[in-house]
């Protein structure tokens, strides 16, 4: 059985190795992909159905019913913005469906403040072999599949 993991934002899918942060580029937190988002205010969507297990303005984790965590990080070093420019639409512990808005943000504003807006989407606590069908190099609309997670 496999589960599709969707893109949280509109943009271009890039390899995780291209993310300008070694924690992500060296897959220290787990395998995945990243999306260079288009500019302009937009909603970051839940990549899978599950429960919001961690929620910060700049990052969130959705845990699947099987217990696998999917981390979405909105930009790099955006924790330094202290939530400015981010609006939460859910709370920790909420059940969400794939494609549900989780956080609103503006990637263009993030870049104007000197941060990368790239969005790593990482599967926590799995081996790289658990991912298949990565869509690297492809444009995506929020909700489009990024990769498949093999159960």
Q: What's the layout of helices and strands?
A:
Elements: E1 2-6, E2 11-15, H1 22-25, E3 32-37, E4 42-45, E5 50-56, E6 59-63, E7 69-73, E8 87-88, E9 95-96, E10 101-105, H2 107-112, E11 119-123, E12 131-132, E13 139-140, E14 145-150
Antiparallel strand pairs: 1-14, 2-3, 2-13, 3-11, 4-10, 5-6, 5-9, 6-7, 7-11, 8-10, 12-14
Report strand %. Answer: 35-45%
Task: Give the end-to-end Cα distance, rounded to a whole number of Å.
Answer: 5 Å
> Which range best describes the helical content: under 10%, 10-25%, 25-40%, 40-55%, 55-70% or over 70%?
under 10%
Corresponding CATH architecture: Distorted Sandwich
**CATH fold node name:** Glucose Permease (Domain IIA)
CATH superfamily: Glucose Permease (Domain IIA)
Order of helices and strands: EEHEEEEEEEEHEEEE
Radius of gyration from the CA trace?
14 Å
Organism: Saccharopolyspora montiporae
InterPro entries: Dup_hybrid_motif, PTS_EIIA_1_perm, PTS_EIIA_component
Keywords: Kinase, Phosphotransferase system, Sugar transport, Transferase, Transport
Pfam family, one: PTS_EIIA_1
Description:
The protein has 151 residues and is mainly β. The protein has a single domain, classed as Glucose Permease (Domain IIA), CATH 2.70.70.10. 7% of the residues lie in helices and 40% in strands. It has two helices and 14 strands. The strands form three sheets. The chain has an eight-stranded antiparallel sheet with strand order 9-5-6-7-11-3-2-13, with no helix packed on it. A three-stranded antiparallel sheet has the order 1-14-12, with no helix packed on it. A hairpin with a 2-residue loop joins strand 5 and strand 6. The radius of gyration is 14 Å and the shape is globular. The N and C termini lie close together (5 Å). The model has no long low-confidence stretch (mean pLDDT 95). This is PTS glucose transporter subunit IIA.
């Amino acid at each position: 059985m496999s589960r599709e993991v969707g893109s949280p934002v509109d943009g271009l899918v890039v390899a995780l190795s291209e993310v300008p942060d070694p924690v992500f580029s060296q897959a220290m937190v787990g395998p995945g992909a990243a999306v260079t988002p288009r500019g302009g205010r937009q909603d970051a969507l839940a990549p899978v159905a599950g429960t919001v297990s961690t929620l910060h303005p700049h990052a969130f984790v959705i845990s699947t019913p099987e217990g696998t965590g999917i981390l979405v990080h909105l930009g790099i070093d955006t924790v330094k913005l202290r939530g400015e420019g981010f609006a939460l639409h859910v709370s920790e512990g909420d059940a969400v469906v794939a494609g549900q808005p989780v956080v609103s943000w503006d990637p263009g504003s993030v870049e104007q403040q000197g941060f990368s807006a790239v969005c790593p989407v990482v599967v926590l606590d799995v081996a790289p072999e658990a991912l298949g069908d990565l869509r690297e190099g492809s444009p995506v609309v929020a909700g489009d599949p990024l990769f498949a997670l093999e159960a």
